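tl;dr need the bound structure. longer version: we got a ligand (biotin) that a collaborator sent over and nobodys looked at where it sits. i said id run it. heres the input, straight from their email, havent touched it
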Amino acid sequence: MLAQRLLAELASGAAVSGAALAERSGVTRAAIWKQVETLRARGLPIEARGPAGYRLPWPLQLLDGQAIRDGLPAAVRGRLGALEVHWELDSTSSELQRRGAAAADLSMLLAETQSAGRGRRGRPWLSPPGLNLYLSCLKRFEQGFAALSGLSLAVGVIVLRALESLGIEGAGLKWPNDVLSAQGKLAGVLVELSGEYQGPCAAVIGIGLNLRLTEALRAQAGQPACDLATLAGGTPPDRNLVAIRLIGALADGLDQFERDGFAGFGADFARHDLLRDRPLRLSGALGEFDATGAGVDARGALQVRLADGSLRSIDSADVTVRRA
Ligand code: BTN
């Protein structure tokens, strides 16, 4: 809890002395120093400025559940199940899954930080506090799994719609649902399904969106990574506003998906498809092979053209763009 309070004290970007922090929190300066180290270990580049004290290199906004609720259009607010902002969860998606049947449709969980954030294929998802967004949404469907094909691609489109509403340009989609810019990965989407094959079923949709990455976080990411600060010319949009736009886009987009399936998203996906006509290397159940991106089909399967000119449909694979 002290770490959360300390981050709130430093959020303006102004320097605050260890003595003032200790006095305001009713703890020793050593306890403050320990929490500074904890936040640093989590990825926050807190600077020590001698007698002036501690400071962040830029201001940040902590998530504010009430501000997010107030900023949502009434029509969206009325459709949400839960809307919760936590300081720390192991993983917003794991938490929604643990709630099972108790979680209402269109429940949204956000956390300032995750201690065990999960990416696709069992990879960890770095989740420093205060910098990025970690959001999971539960969506229930009456239909079975077959009707949900293309859902994870549709979520990528939904993330881009949210970014477009913020005036952020320069991001595209790498099948199935990575949101990338020329500099690297901007957002990751993890869709986990549960329920009956014939329906009803539920999707826990986890989204990690980078607003501000430090050099150290980029190095730890294990792949090129990008943030909204870079795309917005240095300063990311307000974190609560990004959360509002993302939640709004999810509520509207998931309703659209429930009504029309992936058909309602195919044109938007094609407009932002970063793999189309690119030389690709694929690895998966069919082994490793090279091909050229040829869009996605009506179910959201990746289409690739092989060297002999034939088309192959891919449901699951790791895809990288080969250097030309
Ligand atoms: C990917 O590997 O590209 C998917 C990353 C998904 C990360 C998000 S952050 C919110 C939610 N909670 C998690 O533990 N994972 C997802």
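gonna send this back to them w/ a short note. Residues 2-55 form a domain with the Arc Repressor Mutant, subunit A fold (CATH 1.10.10.10).
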